[in-house]
């Protein structure tokens, strides 16, 4: 039986309204009795990833994106914090390999489990555009803009479209500015959910 606190984190509408997580992810978070704040965070990043992929599909339809993979990656990128809840309120990267391992142990394919490892490793070789999109969503949900990360995405967009890099940058900057505008409200939503469910389960 899941706690009321986790249930609220998974179902509360949010302001702005947040999309529900994929059913498979909800079932996994419930089975793991995930911290409510983690569930709220995953919902925020998942929603931003959906906004981002929709906007890119509209402005850059030539960009090859596996939208389902990106959304699943955004919905599970920090799941390793179930094992390392101290990283919900402090720094640390132990959750990255832990999340990848946890997802594999629960039958998730390596092709999408990888985002648990790659979301903070976007400077490494072998990172594709889907990985970059999860990384960008994990930054811009709270209004953080990372120039080096966004430059990598601009490069992919320019290569896919054949457009001038500066023109691509302006379009991406506009998309990210619009998404970042709601960052304070997403942060407030996350903060209303406790790092740990009350001991009573309520």
List the helices and strands and how they pair.
Elements: H1 4-11, H2 23-31, H3 36-59, H4 67-76, H5 95-105, H6 110-113, H7 115-118, H8 129-140, H9 147-161, H10 165-180, H11 183-191
Describe the protein's architecture and organization.
The chain has helices at 4-11, 23-31, 36-59, 67-76, 95-105, 110-113, 115-118, 129-140, 147-161, 165-180, 183-191. It starts with a helix and ends in an 11-residue tail after the last helix. It is globular. It is an all-alpha fold and 202 residues long. Helix 3 runs antiparallel to helix 10 (165-180), helix 3 (36-59) runs antiparallel to helix 11 (183-191) and helix 8 packs across helix 9. The relative contact order is 0.17. It has eleven helices and no strands.
Provide a quick synopsis of the model.
It is built from eleven helices and no strands.
For this entry, give a set of tags:
single chain; mainly alpha; 60% helix; 202 residues; globular
Biggest pleated-sheet summary = none
**What is the averaged pLDDT score?**
92
Quantity of strands, as a count: 0
Secondary-structure element sequence?
Answer: HHHHHHHHHHH
Number of alpha- plus pi-helical segments: 11
Give the N-terminus to C-terminus distance in angstroms: 11 Å
Low-pLDDT residue spans:
none
What structural category characterises the helix and strand content? mainly alpha
Rounded radius of gyration (Å):
17 Å
Helix content: 55-70%
Per the principal axes of the C-alpha atoms, what is the gross shape?
Answer: globular
β-sheet strand percentage? under 5%
